[in-house]
Write a structure and sequence with these properties.
It is a single chain. The protein is of the alpha/beta class and 180 residues long. The protein folds into 2 domains: 38 residues; 129 residues, Glutaredoxin (3-Layer(aba) Sandwich). The chain contains 5 helices and 7 strands; from the N terminus they run H-E-E-H-E-H-E-H-E-E-E-H. The chain has a 5-stranded mixed beta sheet. Helix 3 runs parallel beside helix 5. The longest helix has 34 residues.
Length: 180
């Protein structure tokens, strides 16, 4: 019985040591990600770069989207989301005006196939780039817990605003403030 009890204590100590090692390993991985610049999006920080296909299948990266623009508003959305669709319809009406003011609108569909996205977008023809993130690669770096998420970037790719909103009015106020 004593040998059994000693075995349990020994197994318990080994388990604690194993858990500590796992914890240290996780901390090292997290520190590595931060040191490599793989951090999540924050106001005032440089936005994480990405490359995603547009509806024609051509890869477009963040640097291409923001070059020669004063600001870029990225709308991360889903076809299944009625608020998202309403925002895209509304933005279509004023996209040309914002473009003249140096504001690039970009819609990034997250977690859906280009086929599903193209059914909606081809009917609408929004007049601004639509990218497809079929595998939701922006979910972590852009903190996408819900849609629609908007991210406003300046010409250097610095995040100036980010929020989850269903209010087209909030987006309009934000965009109008950039025209001044």
């Amino acid at each position: 019985m004593n040998a059994f009890r000693t075995g349990l204590v020994l197994n318990y100590r080994v388990s604690i040591a194993t858990l500590k090692l796992i914890g240290v390993f996780i901390l090292l991985l997290t520190a590595n990600d931060c040191a490599a610049g793989n951090h999540s999006i924050e106001v005032g920080a440089k936005a994480p770069n990405f490359t995603l296909p547009n509806l024609e299948g051509k890869d477009v990266n963040l640097e291409q989207l923001i070059s020669n623009k004063k600001y870029s508003l990225i709308l991360i959305w889903g076809v299944w989301c009625p608020y998202c669709r309403a925002i895209i319809v509304d933005l279509k009406q004023s996209a040309a005006d914002y473009k003249k003011s140096g504001v690039q609108l970009v819609a990034v569909s997250i977690g859906e196939s280009s086929f599903k996205v193209s059914i909606f977008i081809n009917q609408l023809q929004p007049g601004f780039p639509v990218l497809v993130d079929e595998w939701a690669s922006l979910k972590e770096p852009y903190l996408v817990k819900d849609v629609p998420r908007i991210v406003l970037l300046d010409q250097k790719g610095i995040v100036r605003h980010t929020s989850i909103t269903t209010s087209i009015e909030e987006i309009r106020i934000l965009l109008e403030s950039l025209k001044k």
